[in-house]
Amino acid sequence: MSIRFFLLFFILFTPNIYSQSVEVDLKDRKTYEITRISDAPIIDGKLDDEVYQSLPIASDFLMFEPGDGDPIPEAYATDVKVAYNDEAIFIAAYMRSGEPEKTVKQFTQRDNVGLSEFFLVDINPYDDGENQTRFIVTTSGAIIDGKANGDNEDYTFNTVWEAEVSHDDTGWYAEIKIPYSALRFPKKKIQSWAIQFSRKITHRNETYSWNYIDKSIGKISQYTGLLTGIENIDPPIRLSLYPYASAEIQQYDDRSKTAFSAGLDVKYGINDAFTLDATLVPDFGQAAFDDVELNLTPFEQQFGENRAFFTEGTELFTKGNLFYSRRVGDAPTGYRSASANLRNNEVIVENPERADLLNAFKISGRTENNLGIGFFNAITSEMKAIFRDTITGDTRTRVTEPFANYNILVLDQQFNQNSSISLINTNVTREGHYRDANVSGFLFDIYNKANSFNFEGEAKMSQVNATDNTVAGFASKFSVNRTKGNFRYGVSHRFANETYDINDLGINFTNNYNNFFWSTSYQIFEPTERFNRYRIEVYGNHQRRYRPDMAVNTGVGGGFFAMTRERFAFGGNLDVNSKFRDFFEPRKEGMFINYNESIISQLWVSSDYRKTFAYDIRLRYGKYMNSPQEEYRLRLSPRVRFSDKFDVVYSFNYNLEKNRQSFVDFSDRDIIFGIRDMESIENSLKASYNFNTKQAINLSFRNFWSTAHFTEDAYSVLEGNGELAPRSYLIDQQNNPNRNFNIWNLDLSYSWTFAPGSQAILLYRNSIFNQDKLSLLNYRYSLENLFNQPIKQVLSLRIVYFIDYNNLYNIFES
After folding, report:
1. From CA 492, how far away is CA 516, in angstroms rounded?
2. Distance, CA of 175 to CA of 409 (rounded, Å)
């Protein structure tokens, strides 16, 4: 029914929508006529080059936040000049300041604005209202680059460009050189590019843009000026090489080993629109550690991606949420079952925790007609566990993960400057007689002509080819949302049948649902006497099981967010839920447990980060009606900016869950539950000392402790109606469900950007882990137990060097 609805919707409406232009008021769109220059300026941030003197000026900036279109004060007037040659585009900006002594100038490294004031340039050579390349330079000289698509920002994108700043008693100056190799543009004689300039004035809490932006309608990326006059430029050969080498010394439990590796990352512009990114013999040894927790849920813990190759330029591949990049190089499918295959007198000699990534590449780009095309491919090697007979000394191997290929294909057609339809396919093929998987998705995200309503939907098909059968599944989503004005509302429906499964290359915790959602909100776009922003919302949901058709939960709630003129933010929400049928905690298909009605409340505050000391506080309390079950959560996160070079952020999290009926074990055909208390404390610290914008020392620390304690002689058996009946359950060393979990991670690194795109990182890392059954230990004694465990210590050096083919070519030509 759902897929027929989607097809009918597109047959009836897509041709009409496609032919219309979206009503965004650009009648006052500003235009800048760029000038070709013969002598390139020196990029030093001083703007005293002769080429700048006769260029036209882009000025008259207008307020974007917190107000709406107010002219920039004369004391903060901003002038921008733009020029180009055969190699690059040059931008010179002069930001006046009526109070230069108040200009915030915090030193940070690449892609980190911090609290600094900044100057921003958005460039869109296709002028499609969607795909902008963003370049930011701060008052300290730090550079940030990214991609902006509609209202979404992605700062994992990195390219090579130059920027320098300078200061005097009237303001500050920024000078930028953007090589054409950093942009994608069509190959034609005369070009017009969308462009936007913005300026953040931190100490006044104000942001201004060159071209006016109406926040109450449409997307920010639609409100750009026009850059004209670009003629006779050719897209350069976009070939960049990133050779790297790394050396590592590791010590663990009185054993030491060394390792050396080298590899190459390649970026190649196939044509003016498409780029190939490849990593050969990848090395992810210095990727940040994962925030591992004690996980007693029926679901795996989801981790963020810390590997640069899987975060840069992946916006196309994340369409439809079918790609969870941690699947590539994840734990082998047979890793956890290796111990179950032990024979008499055998021990496990080797059992790799991760599948080795041999190589990966991705091709992505967008044609002149706004068709985005992306292809991703990765290959992991065969992994084996090694067993040894302790009596005979014989060894044998067992494949825990076969040779595997992962790929994704995406087609994304954008139109009307804010709408798109997409097709995506993901595929996992494993060598031999193993599980394979394929998922296809059809997506649309469409706005009406007035930009007042958004229609969004998905239809996804999954197919898993297991060793003995093939299983197909289906999921869909459809939503309608009011997207214009202060008062907004929306409804949505989400569906998945019981066989929908995308977990070979995606991540999906639940299926077999038929859920409905609604929301309404009121927000302001211009400041009031007390508030810069505030938003009030009311929402609700009704969740059902698809097969068999039965209610799972109904809930309503409300929330608010506000920020004062002094940048003090606060908010909260209150949710009221009916009885909840949990079909996943029992770990058996068709069974569920009933949890009583609940009320969950949350409050938070966040102080002004511009001050030397700032803080975030979050409180949460949940109570289940007619039940002793309740939960408490507290998060404290103070931060201190000791100077413009040194800042520290500390975070403390405390969670307590009391008297929760939780899964324990299977006993014969019975499902055993027990009453569990779970407590956790997390301490983390991030500190950074920046010598300048090219060199820094960074400290990252985390200690997470958690216990799960089951009440003695309070076990039950789960019955078919979701209720529990008392049952005796024998606790011994093997069947003890109690847990004491403690993990410690510390990274200390020195980073040096010694040339554009080139970096050296020296990293010291230590980690300790302990898990046992001593659930009654408090935090102090658990920490003492932790430090009795062997410490894993790693010292590594990684050097990456950027090579631009065009620079090499020019050297050889000269």
Report:
1. 6
2. 39
Q: Kindly report which listed range (87-91, 479-483, 488-492, 775-779) carries the lowest average pLDDT score.
A: 775-779
List, as one string, the DSSP characters of 450-504. TS-EEEEEEEEEEEEE-SS-EEEEEEEEEEEEE-SSSEEEEEEEEEE-TT---TT
Position 99 in a domain: yes
DSSP classification of residue 117: -
- Judge whether 734 lies within some domain: no
Q: How many CB atoms lie within 10 A of CB 530?
A: 10
User: Which residues make beta-bridge pairs with 225?
Assistant: 195
Which residues constitute the domain of residue 167? 34-231
The two structure tokens encoding residue 771: 């898990």
- Does the residue 105 lie in any domain? yes
End-to-end CA distance of the chain: 67
Please name the helix (run of DSSP H) or strand (run of DSSP E) that holds residue 377, with its range, or none: strand 371-380
- Tell whether the model's pLDDT for residue 810 goes beyond 90: no
Residue (of 615, 614, 612, 678) closest to 652 by Cα position = 615
In a domain, 812, yes or no: no
Burial class of residue 520 in the structure, from the number of CB atoms within 10 Å of its CB (0-12 exposed, 13-18 middle, 19+ buried): middle
pLDDT tens-digit series, residues 575-607: 999 999 999 999 999 999 999 999 999 999 999
Confidence band of 129 (pLDDT split at 50, 70, 90): confident
Residue-level pLDDT at 474: 98
> How many structural domains are present in the chain?
1
- What is each CA distance from 231 to 54, 193, 235, in whole angstroms? 19, 11, 12
The whole-angstrom separation of Cα 118 and Cα 447 is 32
Strand 346-350's sheet: what is its strand order?
346-350, 383-389, 395-401
Sequence-distant (6+) residues with CB within 8 A of 359 are 278, 279, 280, 281, 282, 378, 379
* Rounded-to-integer distance, Cα 208 and Cα 213, Å: 10
Instruction: Check residue 210 and report its DSSP letter.
Output: S
Query: 3-class DSSP state for residue 721?
Result: coil
In angstroms, the CA 128 to CA 414 distance is 8
Residue 222 C-beta-side C-alpha neighbours within 13 Å? 20
Read off the pTM.
Answer: 0.89
Residue with tokens 């460039």: 123
> pLDDT-based confidence at 395, cuts 50/70/90?
very high
Q: Is 212 left (phi over 0), alpha (psi -120 to 50) or beta?
A: beta
- Contact by Cβ (8 Å): 185, 269: no
Do the beta carbons of residue 648 and residue 697 sit within 8 Å? no
Q: How far is CA 218 from the centre of its chain?
A: 24
Contact yes or no for 742/786 (Cβ under 8 A): yes
Model pLDDT for residues 14-26, shown as the tens digit of each residue:
444 444 444 555 5
Per-chain mean pLDDT for the chain: 91
Is the confidence at residue 4, as pLDDT, over 50? Answer: no
Per-residue tokens: 283:
């090395």
Amino acid sitting at position 711? T
Which residue type occupies 256?
A: S
The domain that contains 196 carries what CATH number? Answer: 2.60.40.1190
| Residue 582 contacts residue 592 (beta carbons within 8 Å) | yes
Please provide residue 544's backbone torsions phi and psi, each rounded to the nearest 5 degrees: -130, 155
Question: Among candidates 540, 541, 466, 460, which has minimal Cα distance to 497?
Answer: 460
Q: How far apart are CA 789 and CA 769, in angstroms?
A: 7
Task: For 317-334, give one letter per residue: b (16+ CB within 10 A) or e.
Answer: bbbbbbbbbbbbbbbbbb
d(CA 414, CA 366): 10
| Closest listed residue to residue 95, CA positions, set 187, 247, 197 | 197
Nearest one of 52, 90, 83, 270 to 179, comparing CA atoms: 90
Q: Is the distance from CB of 500 to CB of 514 less than 8 angstroms? A: no
> On the CB side of 269, how many CA atoms lie within 13 Å of its CA?
22
Q: DSSP assignment, residue 583?
A: S
